Each structure stands twice: as structure tokens, then as C-alpha cells.
Amino acid sequence: MSLSPFKRLKRLTGIDTQREKYAYAQDPVYGHISESRVAERWVKTTCGYCSVGCGMLLGIRDNKAVAVRGNPDHPVNQGKLCPKGLSEHHILSAPGRARQPLLRKDGQLVPVSWDEALDTMVARIRDIQSRHGNEALGVVGTGQLLSEETYTLGKLVQLGFKTRNNDGNTTLCMASAVSGYKLSFGSDGPPGSYADMENADVILLIGANIADNHPILCHRVDRTSPGTKPRTLVVVDPRVTKTAMMADTHLAIKPRSDIALLNGIAHILIREDLIDHDYIAQHTVGFEELSQFLSPFTPSHVAAVTGLTEQQIIDLALLYGRARSAFIGWTMGVNHSTQGSVTVAAINNLALITGNIGRSGASPFSITGQCNAMGTRETGFTSSLPGYRKFDNEADREALAEIWNINADRIPVARGLAYPDMIEAAVQGRIKAMWFIATNPAVSFPNYKLLEHAFRSLEFLVVQDGFHPTPTTEFADLVLPAAIWGEKEGTYTNSERRVSKVNAAVSPPGEARTDFEIFLDIASRLGVREELYPGWTTTHDAFLEWQRVSKGRMCDYSGFTWQQIEDSGGLQWGGTSLYRDGVFATPDGRARLHAVPCDPFAEQPDTDFDFILNTGRTVEHWHTRTKTAEVAVLNSMVPNAWLEMNPLDAKRLDLRPHDRVTVKSRRGSVYDVELRITGIVAPGQVFMPFHFSESNSNIVTLGAFDPISREPNFKQCAVRIERTPLRNRRPSSSSRHA
Amino acid sequence: MSLPLHEIASSGIQPTLVRLTEHGLSIGPMPNEIAPALEAKPSLIPARALKHGEQYRFHFDMTRCIGCRSCEVACNEQNGNPADIHWRRVGEIEGGTWPLTSRFYLSMGCNHCLSADCLRGCPVDAYKKDPVTGIVLHSAEACIGCQYCVWNCPYSVPQFNPERGVVGKCDMCHGRLTTGLEPACVNACPENAIEIEIVDQLGWRCDHASADAPGMPNAGQTLSTTRITLPARASAPLEKVDIETLRPEHPHWSLVWMTSLIQLSVGALVTAVVTHRTDPILLSLIFVLTVFTLNISVLHLGRPAYAWRALKMWRRSWLSREVLLFGLFFSSLTVLTALAWLRSTNFWLVSDSVFTLAQILASLCGIAGILASARIYLVPARPAWNMRHTPVDFLLSSAVLGVIAISALSHLASALSRLPQLAAFQPTQRASSIPATAIVVVSVLWILNHILRTIVLHNSNIYERRAAASLLNTEDLRGTFLVSFAFLGLALFLSLTGQPLLALPAALAAVMASRYLFFVSVVPLNMALTFIRQVHA
User: Fold this and answer.
1) pLDDT greater at residue A211 or residue B419
2) Are B402 and B266 in contact (CB under 8 A)?
3) What percent of chain A has pLDDT over 90?
4) Are B94 and B102 in contact (CB under 8 A)?
5) B95 chain-A contacts, CB cut-off 8 A
6) Residue B456, Cα to own-chain centre: how many angstroms?
């Protein structure tokens, strides 16, 4: 505070009440509002947090973002935004933004020029690759990048750095949905749209707390306003979430018993003949085997596994079976599991045997996580080739090689290591260099100790992020400061396959550059820029090539230009529903029905670790809080983590509300967590949010992964709860910059 | 001053002002002229003009709220408020046993009460219930930052902004309503759970049952106008989720000092008068102490430069009355001290009766000031203050400090009178000594009052009182509670063993420690808040 003594006196005596700062003014568009929020111009864009993909307008004055408004004309959100969206402009000028490249010298991160940073990066990686092979480099991208950037990055990693080890943080999020769709339908691609929720007779949400995680989807299940269709909302979740409170029926099942429930429903549907025989006969394979497999899943068996009553299970089955159109939505409750992929297949089974797919209101629908998780699934060069092409399909490889004008043998025939396997390989010394882009594994990756071991085993770690310091940049040898949402132009694709335009409204802070510029610069230094990106200068060049790559594919972007996307408030590839003709992306065009056994989750509670820990989110925060901890209003609403425990357990352990407790698993301990005693969680279960690096739930979570999707089992592990001894308490500070 | 909205509406030119339709906001004709398709979404602000005896109010539909807190953020953006000041807040209530647990949310701005306690207590008339809209408006310009409204509002709606030195509160986005726009919270809610309605004030006075909700203070106290639609199916009684959240309130150090020292001054004066120690040196000491104390008191204000404005509402506000009475106490003490000097110097002949009258006047003003001061704290919104123990404590503190101080002040006075310049002003010899029993009795009464108060708090059926007792019993405050008694015991001992100069600081420490606890341990009435939230300083 460099106030003159006179001004300070005026403030202390109250003569100065900061009238100017708190003045109101008339915004020409939005009317009476705090003068500080009056914009000169409004830039149309799409929200950069979750995958709902809300259209927004970013208000700019003096080249600074001062306000945000929901775009009333956008089909997704019709002008509404959640609290994160409503305060999103604050992140652009946040104090924690990364402003200059930093290189570790003598143990310290010191500012360097971009030339030195990128020359060092290329030289170090080449050196490591020359000693340990090309695949000693692993790259982890993100669903926060633009589709154009992900597409560019994929080529850079595979064809420039010549390593197959390229994956995204999306593997921590929706990889199981992708794998499940591939298992059943032969391809990724959510078959439905948000509007299906409005048109369905039954909406079944499994492991999806949309009120906290996708608040702007909640109006889609409004059943009371005039003009809305009367329909039934069923929420399946072990915890009484905000979403459970919106439901007509909440089924509080035992953790990880959803497969049994899904199989039980299918069993009853078959028994009661509430299935679509024609659809099964014409469009599916494997019904006989499935039907046989399901015979033991009687209501009484399923009741024992799920903890529900037989009547609840029968009621749900009849409700689903009798609906003319039924919608099943799910998120992390399903995906964050060692059985995530097959659970998705079990969901798809239900949709297929009742013909609830490819029609309005009828869809098995994965509600995705990050703003552009979908885009990275389509454009990425990670678990598939760009445009949902397969590594093991020669025709796919040759088609790509032709577009790119390269030899087809440069395209690998199998994917490289998935994200968790790269971490494993780093521990084993097979991967020596890693490059993380816009993700914060030090908070988001399970079993933190193993990750730390991996980081310490690497010879060279590059972290490219919009923020510094983050818990991950602390480990970095090189920090590349990147532009974020609001500073870049391109497209995001949301959960319902809607491609939306994202626009640059302000310049990145300091020397930060867009991820796209960084990728092209690295390509130049690798000597592949002209070959891979001939004549490219902007992300639009990437989009034009991506249009050619996706043309004729399921995710076909060739039919619309950037301008058309912008004007229409986003366009859905594939239309409102996929598979309308019942033809799937399998060789014979038929969907596959899978027999999905219901296994118990990996780490069951025992006498030493007697609680099941569930993890999740709260509406005020986003992922690891690199962004939302920087937005004071959000951080002040929920400044710290907490642990939810049932009153019965608290009584047994003699714990009181607000006690400080330690969450202890076989892998580590999270100390000093504020205890909330609540009937929201079941006896024997505890819940904590995963947003907080200060109370990192991933110190205790399990390093177990889905064998198909490689997605971690974040949702269940065995823990013990103890009162935190005084020596392990922290001063009650919440800000990352404190 | 009528609002444009009202003018347009009452002019009859445009019977319908603004409607939210599926095509966005439309300003247009009567509802019956609108094509039915446009009425898909109901209007979220009134479609007709206010009639006489009507006002605007919030309607909150608890069955629609999903607890997303968009309204809270939108409000802060609208008003450019700091992150920790929320004019609209969202709270949570919960009940029942898993899996049949119910949890619901409350979203509340200002309730624009018919009988607003914020307004009634304000010493500077910074509040106004708008005659046209019924909105309770607050003027930052008029406000002096005394924060009495913060204590008076049973919903903790007004919030002090230390950066500005003034209080602020929800004004129903008055400036938006006047231009036909819905308030920011109404606009932001993705579930249309908040809307503006018209309420007939007289009817509401008779029946305001739908302003009550679990997790909310009784609406009858201030006649909150907010209508709350409650869920039909709550499996069990719903309670605030923050019911166990015990957080000390602001200590208000300047008030701890001010109330303790002014009680010392008044107590010392009254004791001096009763024991005939009205010599000029002793009175001057009391006078100096009073000057010091009154100067401290303005430091409590966010805008000390405008302290004088606090006199304005003496007809209505106890805070104004306190200021007035202590002002009179100061004036009469000044006169009394001057008279004492005049008498001693024989410069001016002052009759005994005039001098006695001055003594009585100053004493009465002082006692009245202390009672007015105590009356400030007798607010329904702070149940642990709103007890007869508060005025009793203020009077007993004054008595304890007075009887103990007078010996110390006499000591000082006689020491001063040894100075050659003051040799002429020896204390009068007719002063009677303070009987030890008096000191013991007031001290015991003081301690008894505190113990009784704590027992009453503990056994109260009012949550906020029990919570105050629990706060006093927390690790942080328990020690201070015991220390205050220990100090008083020490003061008593020192006083009885003839060491008044040491006894006085001990007694003052006892009173200040208990006064500190008085301020920090109070649990205000409030809406249910969330379980996790920022700890405010």
C-alpha cells in the first residue's frame, strides 16, 4: 500500500469511503451495475471450465476482462452460468499466472528467454532419446486445450518427437466412457444430446452429481415449470448428493454395486419381456449369451449386493422398461473405477435391449468433464488416431498418411503407454523425460507417493501451464508459461458433441504464449515444422487440416466453418442423435452386448482400515484449484477441504463437528481435515473433495486402474479416520499464495 | 421520489413492464395480448404496478434451489463487493437419517422487513424504507460505520466493509428494478428459484407464516417480507448444517475499552459524590479519564470524522441516546470540575446547593448514560446480550470499578497535592472512607451476576444463548473467563490490604476481560449458512 499519509488519514477518518471504487454505472447493454464491471466491448466465447459448454460473453475494458455474461442466445445455457462461469474473468488477471519461462539451474527455477527454454527442452529431450530410445519421452496433455492445439500436439509428439507415449489427463476422467462406447458400439461418441433429458420419460443418473459438477444441466431435468414434460428422475448414488435431492427416487446403493443393479434391471426386463425384440434381432450381437449370463441376477441377489430392497429394483426396472424413451446419464461414479469400461458396457446393454438409443429422449449418455475433453478424444493422437481412427487398422493409417503426405510406416500400429503406465514406466526408468501440458498431476493423480517417486526418477520434467507455482511446477526442470481460456482462439467440443467457438479477448500475461505457438516453435527447433505444419500460422490452419482429417468420419467437422460455428452458438457433429439407423461402427454394423460380471472393488475395508473413502467435487471449485483458488469469491466460499462422516460413526469414534481428523490409508495420510458429521454419507463411508492440494485426497487413494481404459479407481479405497494430533495441524490458511 | 418503473407502471401506458419469455426479456403489452407460446417462462419480476400499501419482495422457492450459489457470485459481481462480503448468501439445512436424509438450501439477500430493526437502531438515519417500493435502502454517504444495524438485524444482512468504513446491504438491485430489469440474483439463478413479487403490507402483517423456514430466524420479529416456498416432503426436522460452527465474533476492542473506562469514570464520580471527595484534583482526574474514554469511543466507528452525526436520531436510536447522555455527562462533569476549582480558589463564590446540584446532575447523567449504553445491547438479534444481566453487569462493573478506583484516585490526588503548585488544594477532610463491606458486596455481586448469566445461557432453550455458553467453554475462551474472576479476586485482596494503586488495574483487567468475552462470545441470530466457510476476522 503506497498511500500518501494524507490519503491514509482521509481513509482512516472515514472522509474517504472509496466512492469511486464502489460506484455504479449504466452498462449500455446490461444496465445498472458496479462501474468496475462496465465493459467497452463483449467477446463471444465458450466457458473454459466443464464440458457443459455454456456460451458466454466476455466483457473487455482497457484490454482487461472485467465481466462475464451468459450468452442468452446459446442453445446450451440460454444465458445462465454457474458460479465458476460467472466469475471466470477474474482468472485472466490472477496473481498466480505464469509469466515467463523458468529453467531449473542449481536447483532453483530461474527466468530464462523463450529461446533458451525451448532450445534446452529440445536438446535435453533429444539427448535422453538418443541414450534411452525415442519412447523414453512421455507427454501428457489435457482436455483444457483447444481441439486445434490437441491436433497439432498429437502430430508433434508422434511425428516430431517420434514417441507413441502420448496421453491426456482425460484418462483420469472419461477414458472409461470412451472404452465402454468402443466396447458396445465400436466407436467413441456419446449417442445423445442434452435435449434428450427434456424429452425422455425416465432420466436415470448413475454416479452423476450434476448439481455440483454440471449445474447448468439441471434445468434440463426440471419437471415442475410450465411447459416441461412430466417425467421421472432417478438418481443412483451412495451419497445423498445435491442431485439426489432433485430426484423423484434416490437409490443409495453400496459403492461399486452399480453393475449388479444394471444387470438386475436387465434381468427383470428380460423376465417381464419389456425388451425390444426387433431392435435386438436387427442391431445387436450377443443377446443369448447375455440373457443366460443375467439369470443369476435375480432381484433378491441384486438386493443383497446393492443394499436396495427388491421392490426398489423391480420398480426401477419396470419404470425403465415401460418408458417410451429412457435416458441414462453418468459421470465419475461410473468412470472412476477399475470396472468403469465394463460398467459403461452394462449401461449400453440396457439401452440396446430396450432400443433406447438413436431416438429423441433415448440415449446412454456420458456427461464429460473438461471443456474440451470431447475434442481431444476426436483430434488426439492418444488412445486412437485422429478422427476416431484405429492404430491397428491399416486402412486408417494409410488414409492419414496420405492426408499428411508422409510414409504410412511413420504411424504406429499400436498406441503407446497410457498416462498411468507412463508414471509406472518413469518409476521403472523406462521413461526418462516427461512433458505435462495444462494439468496438475501432483494433485490429480492417484497414489501421490508413486507419482512423486516417478517425478524424482525423471531426468527432465517440462510443465507447461497457465499458472505458476502449482504443486506440479514445483517439480519441474522447465516451466513454460501458457495462455489460457480467454487468450486463445479455436474450438471446444462439449459433452453433446457440440463444437463451439472460443475466442481470444485479451493478451496473455507477461511473456506467456499460446500452447499452439509453443508447439509450432518446438516443431521449428526439431526441424519438422514445414513438414508437419506447412504454412501454418494460426489455429485456423490447424482447423482446416482437421476438417480434411475428420471428413467422412463419424466426428466430421468438414461441414461447418469457424464462422458458422460462431454464428449458430455451436454445431453438433452427428446431429442430435447418433446411430439413428441402428448401424454401429463395428465391422458388421451391429452393437455388441457384453456379459459384465460384478466384482467387488479392489481395496475392501477391514479392521485396520474400516471406512470406504469416496471422493468428489463441490460446485465452487474446479479440479485442482489452479484456477478457482485464484478467484477470491470462489475460494472464500469454500476455502478448505472437509471430510463427511455419518453421525453413527462419529459417535463411535467420539468425534465432533469441526474436529480435525487424519485420513489414513495404506499409502499415506492426509492430516488436519475439517470433519463434517452428516447424514449425507452412509455409515462406514466417508467422503472428501479432491480439489485441495493442501489436503490432497490422492495421498490416500489407490493406484488401481481399469484394465481397458487405464482410468484410476479414485472412488473407493479403504481408510481409517483418526483425530489429528496437534503436531500435525497446519495454521488455518487457505490461499495458495499465503 | 417515485421510481421510473413505478411511474411507467402507474401511468397505465404499459400495464406489463417486463416479462421473461423464451425469447429473452420482452417489454410489451398486457399478458392476455401475448401469444401463449411466449408465456412458456413466467415473469420473474412483477408485471403490474404497485398499488398503495404494497411493496416488492423476494420469493425464494426452496424446492427449486440446487445450492449452486450462482446468485451469491452474481450479487458480488453486480455490486463489485470484496470476496468476503456477500449481500446474498446461500445456506444449507439438513435432517433425517441416511439414506432418507433431506438437505435443502436457503438463498437470502435482504428481507426488506416491514418492521426493520436495522433502520430503527440507526443513529444517523442512513436507512430508509422506500415509500414506493418498500425496499430498505441504505446510504453509504450518511453511514458512519457504527455497525449497530449489524447487531440489530436478525438475519445478519448488513455487513461492514472495513475498506470503506461503512456498512452495505442488498437493495434488491433497486437500480436495475427502476429500469425494468430483474435483480442480479434473480437473473443469474439457473433454476428460476428467486423472483420478485408484490406483497400487500397490511395483509402480510396479519399473516406472514410463509416467511418462516427451517434455518431462518422467526420472521415475526421484524416482519420479513421474503416468501419462502418450502418442500412438501422433508422426512425429518431440518436443522442448520452450521449449528455446531462456533466462531468468536469481533472483539470490538475500542468498545471493550470505552465501556469499561466510562463505567470506571461514572462509578468513580458517583462514589466520590457519595463519599464527599469532591476536591478539584480528584474530579480533574475523573475528567481527564472521561476525555480519554470518549476519544477512544469514536475509534469504533468506520468513519470517526463523522462521529457527531451519531446524535441525530436521539428520538429513536439508543445509540444516539447513549452518545447524548454521555455527552451530557461529560458537560456536567466539566461544569462540576470547574465549580470545584472555583470553590477551592475562592475565585468565584459557588453556593453549596449549586455545587450539590451539579454533583447530582453529573452522577445522574452518568448513570443514565450507562443504562443507555446497556440498552444498546438489549437487541433481540443477539440473544446472549438481550438479558437483564447486561444492564446489571454494566452497573455492577461501574460500582466495582468506582469503589476500587476512588481509593486509588484519592491516593493519586493526595500525591499530586504534594506538588508545590497544587498545595493549596488539599482534599477535604470530611471524606468518609470506603467501607470494606461495600467493596466485598459489589465484587461478590459482580461475580454472581456473571456466573448466573453463564448458567442461564447454558440452560436456555434459545440456541444462540446455549451456543454462546459453549463458546465461553471453548479452549480459546475458557481461560479468559476464569482469569476475569481471578483478577477480581486479586483486586479485592489488594484493595482490602490497602494497596489501591495495584487494586485498580486488577479490577479493570477483570472488567475488561469479561467485557471482551461479552463481545466475542455472542452468537447472533442468522440464517443457516454453509458448513465450510471462510473464517472472518
Assistant:
1) A211
2) yes
3) 96
4) yes
5) 679
6) 22
As a whole number of angstroms, the distance between CA B395 and CA B23 comes to 66
Can you tell me the distance from the alpha carbon of B121 to that of B386, in angstroms, rounded to the nearest whole number? 15
If contacts are CB pairs under 8 Å, which of residues 19-48 in chain A contact chain B? 19, 21-22, 24, 31-37
Cβ separation of A679 and B305 shorter than 8 Å?
A: no
Extract the C-alpha cell encoding B473. 467453554
Q: Residues A475, A30: contact at Cβ < 8 Å?
A: no
What is d(CA A412, CA A391) in angstroms, rounded to the nearest whole number? 7
Mean pLDDT of the residues in chain A: 96
In contact, A67 and A37? CB cutoff 8 Å? yes
Closest partner residue to A218 (CB to CB) among B63, B94, B191 is: B191
What is the least distance, in Å, from the CA of B12 to any CA of chain A?
24
- Contact call for B83 and A635, based on CB within 8 A: yes
Amino acid identity at A369: G
The reply to whether residue B190 touches residue A682, judged by beta carbons under 8 angstroms, is no
Instruction: Read off the C-alpha cell for A628.
Output: 478457482
Q: Between the CA of residue A543 and those of A538, A580, B486, what are the distances in Å?
A: 9, 28, 78
Q: Could you tell me how many helices (H) and strands (E) chain B has, helices first?
A: 16, 12
Q: Answer yes or no: is pLDDT of A571 > 60.
A: yes
Residue whose cell numbers read 479468559? B480
Q: Is the pLDDT of residue A35 over 60?
A: yes
- pLDDT at residue B115 in the model: 97
Q: Answer yes or no: do B534 and A734 touch at CB < 8 A.
A: yes
Amino acid identity at A409: D
Q: What tens digit of pLDDT does each residue of A139-195 get?
A: 999 999 999 999 999 999 999 999 999 999 999 999 999 999 999 999 999 999 999
Chain B CA closest to residue A8? B163
- Taking CB atoms and an 8 Å limit, are A245 and B102 in contact across chains? yes
Q: What is the DSSP string of A578-596?
A: S-TTS--SSTTS-EEP---
- SS3 per residue for A100-154: CCEEEECCEEEECCHHHHHHHHHHHHHHHHHHHCHHHEEEEECCCCCHHHHHHHH
Residue of A12, A33, A682 lying closest to B98 (CB–CB): A682
Which pLDDT score is estimated for B430? 57
* Cα–Cα distance for residue pair A459/A431, rounded to 1 Å: 9
Q: What percent of chain A has pLDDT over 70?
A: 99
How far apart (Å, rounded) are the C-alpha atoms in residues A379 and A148?
8
Q: Count other Cβ atoms within 10 Å, centred on residue B202.
A: 10
Q: Mark the ranges of chain B whose per-residue pLDDT is less than 70.
A: 1-42, 233-235, 423-432, 535-537
Quick one: pLDDT at residue B235? 67
DSSP letters of B309-320?
GGGTTTTT-HHH
Query: Rounded to an integer, what distance in angstroms lies between the CA atom of residue B293 and that of residue B285?
Result: 12
Location of C-alpha cell 421392490: A311
3-state class (DSSP) for residue A204 = strand
Distance, in angstroms, between B287 CA and closest chain A CA? 25
Closest residue in B to A216 (Cα–Cα): B190
Q: What is the pLDDT of residue B36?
A: 34
Indicate the SS3 state at residue A432. coil
Q: How many residues does chain A have?
A: 738
CA angle A558, A560, A563 (to 5 degrees): 135
Cis peptide before A657 (omega within 30 of 0): no
Q: Rounded distance, CA A705 to CA A450, Å?
A: 14
Q: Which of B34, B98, B164, B229 to mutate against chain A (most A CBs within 10 Å)? A: B98
Which residue in chain B has the smallest CA separation from A90?
B77
- The beta-carbon neighbor of B304 closest among A13, A216, A734 is A13
Q: Are strands B54-61 and B194-200 parallel, antiparallel or unpaired?
A: antiparallel
* Parallel, antiparallel or unpaired: strands A717-723 and A611-616: antiparallel
pLDDT band at A17 (very low <50, low <70, confident <90, very high): very high
